[in-house]
Amino acid sequence: MGYILKTILYICKKKIKMKTLFTLAFIFLIFTTAAQTSLEEKVFQKINEYRDSLQLSKLEWDSACYKGSSLQSTYLKSTNGIVSHNNKNESIKNAKERFKLSGGKKTLLLAEICNSTNKNYKVVDTLIEEKLAIEIVALWKKSPTHNKMMINPRMRYGGCSVKIITSSTGIKTYLHYNTISVMLLFE
Asked: pTM (2 decimals)?
C-alpha cells in the first residue's frame, strides 16, 4: 500500500491532468495483484544460468524491478503486443519513471529489455513454460543490445514480467502463445 500512496503523491506533485485517473486505477490494480508467476521465475532463472555460464554474478530479485516491468508488460499486452520501450501513458513514459513509481531507488545504471514471442504448442504439452522461458532468453541473447544489458557485470538486481495472450491456431490440438516480456535491471 505504501507504493500506492507514493504513486498518488507523485502524480499530485506533477499536477497531471484528470485523464490519469485511469493510470491510478491501473497502477492500483498492478500493485495489489502483483505476484511472480512460475514462468517469470523460470525466465529469471534462465538469465541467471546464462550469467553464471559466463562467470558473472547472478542477479538478485528486486520487487521494484518486477513491479516496473509488470507496468510495462501489462501496457504492452493492452497494445496487442506491439513492443516498445516507450509508454504513451503520461505518468509512466519510460523505464526510469516506471522504476521510480514502483518504489525503486535512485541508481546510476538502469536498463530495460522488452520482447514479444509467438509460438504454437500442443495443448497437451507439459513443458510450455520451460520452452517459453528458453525462447524469451534466447531472443534477448540474439539481440546485441539486449544481450549487452543482460550480461553487464555492473548489473546486480533485476525483475521480469511476462504476460501471455493465447489464441486458437485453427487446429484443435494446438494453441498459439504470444508472450510479452519485460525485464528491468540495475546496479
From this structure: 0.76
